[in-house]
């Protein structure tokens, strides 16, 4: 499965993946998913929000055990963030079959669309729509960097955007959702190939628009300038400083400049802040402080600052009984000293589904801690331990 996915959407220049919602690489990934489902004799379904499902057993029976993740990537993403969960799901299903496991509940594998939000700015669009956390009207307003609207992108890729919206009936069929994912920091030790998630930090994305005045770089006196780049730069620095003081995270990883000329003072700088913290109070306080710093600096620079919250995900505490059940099952065969139970600062579809169905996550060790980068890596032995753990957990949940 890895060999087939490896070249899809990979940039020869960076070695990273560019699998964005509804682009051609995304289409190839989707075709791959459908093929994996069909060749295993699973019932393939595309839901109204463009998420793909592969069912073993009757989808309508209820109480389904669902696993899966996503196949899209951030710009120049790594191979594992997302695909590890989908590949491991198919591998775990194969393992259950080779064990002759007698499932008493339907089992499904899902590929959620547009988890990373790389194209339309909002993460987990497929699962948010399904859970009704992102409304249809709001989704219709989303545009990519070229101004293409989400429904138009969907339609161009051959999907019907008229159908998108909350899908309570589908969620009602699910008894438990378990997402396996590569761990994205360096929080699992060498003898800990697999961990269980306890929580996801609250996180969000905020767009800062710094409006200045375009002018000539060679003739405009320093005191006559209204340079938004200055306000932007200062805001980046103060975000970093304030996040450190708060024990939280703040990142400006994306910026757009107009008109983007070397010999012109910019008229507009747009910077996207990604911020995360262990609790919502800290996160809210931190973003307010960064906003204040931006406004204050903007006044000094003659720059108007506008802030738009593009997305927000509250803290997610995963279902306690399900989390404990996973840990108990894995402790029967797994890591000496007990399977680690740990929180993460990374967002996941599991975090969205957790508001509607009992949800849990498994993490596979990331030896370098690098993620959202072409250098992301997981050792084969750890990935196989992940598959075994997922199979054990699915068997425990689906054969009761
Ligand atoms: C998703 O990977 C996120 O945490 O941004
Ligand atoms: Mn990611
Ligand atoms: Mn992911």
Instruction: List low-confidence stretches.
Output: none
What's the CATH class of the largest domain, please?
Alpha Beta
Which superfamily, in CATH terms, is the homologous superfamily of the largest domain?
Zn peptidases
Q: Briefly note the CATH topology name of the largest domain.
A: Aminopeptidase
* Separate helix tally: 12
In short:
By secondary structure, the protein is α/β, with parallel strands linked by helices. Helices cover 35% and strands 23% of the residues. α3 links the parallel β3 (64-70) and β4 (107-112).
Describe this structure in words.
- 35% of the residues lie in helices and 23% in strands.
- The radius of gyration is 22 Å and the shape is globular.
- The protein has helices spanning 2-5, 24-39, 83-98, 125-131, 136-141, 150-156, 168-172, 228-246, 280-301, 320-333, 349-353, 380-398, and strands at 43-46, 52-56, 64-70, 107-112, 174-182, 194-200, 203-211, 215-216, 249-258, 264-265, 268-276, 304-313, 316-317, 341-344, 359-364.
- The two termini are 30 Å apart.
- Helix 3 (83-98) packs across helix 12 and helix 8 (228-246) runs antiparallel to helix 9 (280-301).
- It folds into 2 domains: 2-201 and 315-398, Aminopeptidase, CATH 3.40.630; 203-313, Alpha-Beta Plaits (2-Layer Sandwich), CATH 3.30.70.360.
- The model has no long low-confidence stretch (mean pLDDT 97).
- The protein is α/β, with parallel strands linked by helices and 400 residues long.
- The chain contains 12 helices and 15 strands.
- Strands 1, 2, 3, 4, 5, 6, 13, 14 and 15 form a 9-stranded mixed sheet that branches. It has a 4-stranded antiparallel sheet with strand order 9-11-7-12, covered by helices on one side.
- Glyoxylic acid is lined by residues 116, 123, 346-347.
